[in-house]
Amino acid sequence: MPYKDKNGKFCGFLNAEEKEGSGKFLRRYFLLDEKKSRLYYYKDNPGNLHADYSKTCGEIEIHFISRVSDARKLRPKVDNCFSITYAGRTIYLEAEDGDDLEGWIKALNDASKITVPVKHEDLGNGKKDSRAGFTAEIAGGVVCKIPMKVSDEEPGSSDESPNESSGLSASAMQSYISGYCVKQGGMRKNWKRRYFVFSESGFQYYSSDRAKEPLRTLPKADIIDVRRSSSGHSSRDNLFEVVTAKRTFYIQCDDPADTDKWVNMMKQNLPTTQISLTKLTGPNGEAIEDAESTEAANELSGDGSDPGVS
């Protein structure tokens, strides 16, 4: 089990595959510093080393982690293996035993999850409790105090339905497909780890798999298209897009197989008359974004009227 040092930081030894795909694991000492949002690793416990030899071998920025999971089925020859996926890269680690594996997965998932902002409580005298009203973020190396809001999206957007809680956690809901991905924000364009659920109710995302209330819901009828992304996000692999009339959502999966799974499952379960963007020429020859549905295409070109009606 990872233990806490005198400063309250999770730490312990793990075997790490530092060079991806090499199959060579090296024993390293890991230190989880939640205040600095970093996972550091050293050749040995830095407390046992001279200051000149206590430099880190490397570090992982916690906010870039999209998944921490059990990898024993993926790497059956590596005992107690788990993986950390971040910034499009996967690192495989070997724990001492099963308890150690579960402890590290829980500690890392807890450290990398996004905290859901809560509404201010009414104190009963017409005033709001502002004690949880701000969150600290770093912008350009400066710590900024930013007011918290219930949703991470732009206010007043109308392409969403009310966020009603079903009483079930996100992972317990019946769905076509669900899981963790990373999405781009609507206002600040930062990337955040969210738990996504695509079900009969629509496309929803939550702060974590244990959350009961979605941060946002897109009804199926509002989704125009789902496709692999061809936009210029050069530092982001495995992206797909969920297109609505008012916004395109950019979502990053862990690998190409996950991306294809999301795109195919969503396409298969959207209404059959849904517009799917391809190339189409309008009534005056102009290029417009097309639809696989003939009905939708006719509406766009103005030819959808009954031949018998003038």
TrEMBL record:
Residues 277-310 are annotated as: Disordered. Residues 7-113, 174-271 form the PH domain. InterPro entries: PH-like_dom_sf (IPR011993), PH_domain (IPR001849), PI-Interact_SigTrans_Reg (IPR051707). PANTHER family: PROTEIN OPY1, TANDEM PH DOMAIN CONTAINING PROTEIN. This is Pleckstrin homology domain-containing family A member 1. It comes from Mytilus edulis.
